[in-house]
Amino acid sequence: MAYSNGINTRRLVLVVDDQEINRELLEMFLSDDYDLLFAENGQQAMELIRAHQDMLSIVLLDLMMPVMDGFQVLAAVHADEALRRIPIIVLTAERAAELRALQLGAADFITKPFDMHEIILARVARIIELSEGRTIIQAAERDELTGLYTGNFFFQYAERINRYHPDWDMDAVVLNIERFHLVNDLYGRDFGDRVLGLIGEAILDQTNGVGAIGGRMEADQFCVYIRHAESYQELLEALQSRLASISGNSRIRLRTGVCPRLEGIGDLQSQFDKAKIACNMLRGNFSRDVMYYDMEMHRKEVFSEGLVNDIHRAVEERQFQVYFQPKYGIQGPRPALRSAEALIRWKHPDHGMISPGAFIPLFEQNGLIQMVDEYVWAETARQIAAWKAEYGFTLPVSVNLSRVDVYDPALEEKLLGLVETNGLTTHELKLEVTESAYTDDPEQLVARVQHLRDLGFQIEMDDFGSGYSSLNMISTLPIDVLKMDMKFIQNVKKGNEKDFKLIELVLDIAEFLHVPVVAEGVETAEQCEMLRQAGCSLVQGYYFSRPIPPAEFARLIEKELNDMKLEG
Prior knowledge:
There is one protein chain. The chain is of the alpha/beta class and about 575 residues long. The chain has three domains: about 5-140, Response regulator (Rossmann fold), CATH 3.40.50.2300; about 150-295, 2-Layer Sandwich (Alpha-Beta Plaits); about 315-565, Alpha-Beta Barrel (TIM Barrel), CATH 3.20.20.450. The protein has 21 helices and 21 strands. The longest helix is centred in the N-terminal third of the chain and has 25 residues, at about 115-140. The protein is elongated, with a radius of gyration of 37 Å. The protein starts with a strand and ends with a helix.
């Protein structure tokens, strides 16, 4: 008997034959290479098969036997899913029985009477090898927890559907559990596994026999390739019904993205990528459960991808343009130009002027915003120096500091380099950080921003009041100016008195912190007067000026200088 590291490596073979001479011959042929079990009829064989089903590698089965014949054994094994993996070689002298045996699942034949034992050994070894290979593949192709196909095999079988049924209109469906990590955290991993298992069962039930397959791609992401349906409500209801059976009072929500076969989408993988995009668009949206990827979404995605590809050329060719919007002090006898904010515009050679709302969020998502920010810093520093040289007038300008900028180890070096190269002071280049940024790793961000303040840069908190920062934390944040979110002003314009009270609250907070407030979005004289009476220091908005290019902004500087001369 052969062993490897103490483990028996010999395969177990069951020989079933009612003739003792045949059992003895097969024992003589096989015993040197295999461990053997013997049965005299089909009933004994079934008992041994069930008792050793996990270890049994092959069955050599005579067809003509008393009590229970070989055909009955074949039928019983084929009907039992747990036994079906065990290959059976039929022992027969009747050629006519071969077709029926094949139909019942026989893997091969050995003809009686037995002659060359080498052929018998070769047939047994080959069938065992094929069976074990198939078992390994089946284990790899199915996810153990859900019974669904694993990623690679899912796409192989989906491609097979396309190959054999090119006329079928197939949809790619991606399902995801909303905040699945919280399910595990709240109820435990065992409960989470039950959830995944139930989803797998429901998908198998819904796809069985309807020209569809299901797969599990990641921890809580499932894919279904299914013939097009006008609605997937039945699928979702089946899934939610299974989940409700174990979830009790907890709400387990599935997000579903669907991508039909659209022109220009590309291959199967791309179709599922689009379905995933649609699914992800539902993250945090509890008003709907299904999102369909359509041609309009595809056009937007292609447009966005084009912008990402064009950014390097845009920087090299100076397609980006820096505009400036003034900030006016309103507490003196007249509004006075105090500073400005630098804002980016993109004059694209193919698309014309592109709104920042179309590319800033896109670049923030993929980290390219740092390239845009640094372009704005350099242009702004150069422009401040140019106005300073032309007019002898120092105009501080604030530039945006994105989260990715704050964690750049070379940030201070870059900013100080711009200041020094352009002959500026750190007070002339203000830095804006959005309120929401302070909630992302606040300790590290606060330490970094404080270091910038220590170098002389002034820090403006942008969009203050948009709902992110904690009031008990605000007094510890390193800031020099609060920029009030423009929605406060817009709501007051609509007659919302509560928002006027909130404006007064923001001003009280700023007074407590001993910092000025810039009110954004001021569009009318009434709003400006209201803010002046409330004690707001600075305003910014279309009432004074929209964001304008440097040449136009220069006229505002000239007007301010003339007003200062007239005042003596």
